[in-house]
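pasting for the record
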Amino acid sequence: MDGGSRRNIVLCFTMFCLRTLAIPLEKVPEVAQHVRNEPRKTDFAIFRPSEESSIAFLWSSIGIATFTAFLQGLVTTLASMTESSNSWTFRFRLAKLEHWWWTVISVFLFISLVLITLSFASGNNNEAISILVLSSTTLLAIVQYTVPSWRSRHYIRNRYSAWAGPSRTAIKRDHIAYCGSKRDWANLSKNVRVSDRKRTPSDDYGWHIWRVEGIREDPTDILNSVHAGKETISREGRNEHIYQDGYQTSATVSLFWGEQLGFVPRVSRAISSVPANLLKSRPITVDGFAGEGLCLGMGILGRNKGLNPRGLVFKMNEPIWRSLENNSAFAPRPSKTLRSYYAKQLKRVYGGISDQFVLAAVELSLILMDADSHAIATWLEGYCEHQDLYVNQRLQQLDATPEELKAHYESSYVSMVISLNNMRTRNLGRPGRGIDSKEKPCRPDIICLGLLLKAREQPEPNWWRHEDIQAIRESERTLLNGEWYNDAAKLLGLSSCPHGFENGQWGIASPSLDSSTASTREVEMTP
């Protein structure tokens, strides 16, 4: 809601209060008896309650309207302050209650309107203007704010999850020994003192009614302040939240952290690169296009890039994106008409990483525009925007080579897009639609990893036929809609998916797409 609309609401409240206050102040002398002896302003009345009841209707209406104006002014000011100070974690938390506070405002306004109408019907005809002002204000609050806020409440919830979900953060390799379980992090945060530094405004959790348990500091700040000692070294769960991405010579590793490790949720610091118009409760681009997909997509990409986003593989071209649209669980994907526009906008933000990263960002944002809000919520709750940590660590335990671990990371964006676009049902997570309780979102990490190794002409890995890997591959095959294998293969550099590959048959590699041909068919990314 913009500042001008908020001021209009408060102005209407003020006009009503001043209008109604002016009448009784002229009529109330030192004793109430004088009021009782005054004649009514008109002899016409629908009903004639006692004088005390008539005055009670009037003053009750005034009191409720005044309280409502104060309440709305308080919340509006708080929302404006959090936006102007870039306290986006607090602002997004407030927004999750937006539909409820507008409901309360509308109910109070309606009660006040009923009371002032009863006062008018009892013969106080001076309340006609007050009724007109208050009825207009009530209708405005309901039609322009309450109803839209209820319609957008699922998007608001998904926006919070997209921006404040678990994150991948680069930490020094020397700090791995300190990264353990939830209990280890709690002990570590108590045993070290984070050095004073300028706080990031978006990290501020804000006011809360009940006590919020959790670690408020950023994990990198804690680790940079740590002093090696027995009381701080991890004793349980060591490395269980560290990705093994195969970059053995890198000075940093990727830590997967969030509420699952006891941290208080906060939005990604990448939010500083997002235009303010996309952070509204009803986002819209500067050119007037819907911006929900952009906001959700940028929130996800701000948390899951990993150590080397330039190396992420996503060889999109026109035949592939047309096939993705046709085979999508959310077909016919009406937002596909925004592809060129989204590409220009995201090129400005992510163009410094790589063209393939921009192409992945475009596809993700377009799918998020068309996907059912319940399906998105379920997908985010399953951490499907992130490379599967369990699969990654299981591969390491099965002695996967550094090149294979690196391929797992570099194929992760293809797996992410396929997991959302090719859900088994478009109504996933929506109650009352006859969805099997066993249905859940799934990332095809193993199959995508195998396809990328195929594209790089690697031999069959030693772990490919392991029973755990076969079980994972079977779940990937059954929990998605079955129309995605060729699309994933082409995105990873193959001309098609090898026959029987999804069933574990390594077979003969399909020829890779010629790099010169593929480059000429890639979607144009220049503005």
